[in-house]
Amino acid sequence: MPKPTALVWFRNDLRVSDHAALTAAAASGLPLLCLYILDEESPGPRPPGGASRWRLDHALAALEEDLAARGGKLHFLRGPAEELLPEVARAAGAQKIFWSRRYGGAEIALDARLKAALRESGREVHSFNAALLAEPWQVKSKSGGAFKVFTPFWRALREKIAPPALLPAPQNLVAAPWPDGAPQPLAREALALAPAKPDWARNFPDPDAGEAGARKRLFDLLDRKIDHYPTHRDRLDFDGTSHLSAHLHFGEMSPRQIFGATPPSGGGDKFLAELGWREFSYHLLYAHPELSWRNFNPRFDAFPYRKDEAALEAWRRGKTGYPLVDAALRELWTTGFMHNRARMIAASFLTKHLLIDWREGEKFFWDALADADEASNAASWQWVAGCGADAAPYFRIFNPVLQGEKYDPDGAYVRRFRPELAGLPAAYIHKPWSAPEAVLARAGVRLGETYPHPIVDHDFARRRALAALAALAAGDTHR
Predict the structure, then answer these.
(1) What is the set of domains in the chain, with CATH numbers?
(2) Which pLDDT score is estimated for 163?
């Protein structure tokens, strides 16, 4: 018979500090079997997209090193977790299984089935909160249900929930040997998360993954950026954002660690509110598991979206003829990341200028963003499209030229990601079609050749979007 062990199943909680499941497993006194399962089977939890897989590879490498430094060892398997986890637990004689909770509908259903099966086999299963300041069921509206508006949600969260003391990383872990009779573990490289042929991520910047990278990002924010965060976070030409989104998604740092380190005044208050928006997104996902594919506001089920594959592909490829939109998509293609203000502008352009269903954009971002997060991605797309909770009104249609002139006034963002336009003066860089021929010639810009003409006129697009909204309100979506 194998010696009793404690099994720790890592998911999107890839750290060792402030990790309640790992801490409890270490406190059990049993040798630890630490496991990560790449589960891409269907049906089940949504598998990571391409850029997210690349980022996951870096996160797992960092966790592997952090566990090894403390005497632990991270093992890897690939396949359906619903089959593999019980097999490993049985072969290892795992008396206790520990994991961190997840909040997507398919994830919750899978975990519930696993918990029932493991307990039926006589094993203890312990789950913990690793991803949120508070569990979704802990923060209720006055009616007892889920909040639909952010401000009262954030007020209730801050007033009623006090995050517990942070947990230090456990030291001197005792690693259990891989059990006989269990599926053979893989090397991390064998998971084939990093792209190879072609290696489209070869020029992506170093993500500085893991806990050390997350701490560096947080200290940089608090030391250098926090005082100006409320205004600089929207500037596309400044390095004014936290860059913590991927660290949070993969659980390399907990929101409690961020909350505890951030001063609740000045710029810190606005940054904490952004952390609250992430929390609100998970609150919505837990209450509405279909958030990534169904309109939160069912009235928009009848919205007259257009099918236009050519326009959708032009948007994906950053060939819309609007420099700020195209720079945003080029940033995504070349870094795996997109500035939050640029995300809003790009999303608005797709759903309102092109009248293309927000779900097309959500799917593309899921595959192309290294920090793709089901809750934040779905809630944000629905917010921009006007069909989500506490959404921006549909009639609020971002003008990409005015947005560029406000948030990238000298054109630095466009020049960085659309270098073919770099020679244009600031007065024309967000609207090259308005530049005199002599100015275009001096800048080496040939519209329709080196840079495309706009695929849709802004004024026409705005009128068309408002007409679609009016048709929806009138119940006539066919005119």
Answers:
(1) 1-130 (3.40.50.620), 131-163+211-287 (1.25.40.80), 298-474 (1.10.579.10)
(2) 67
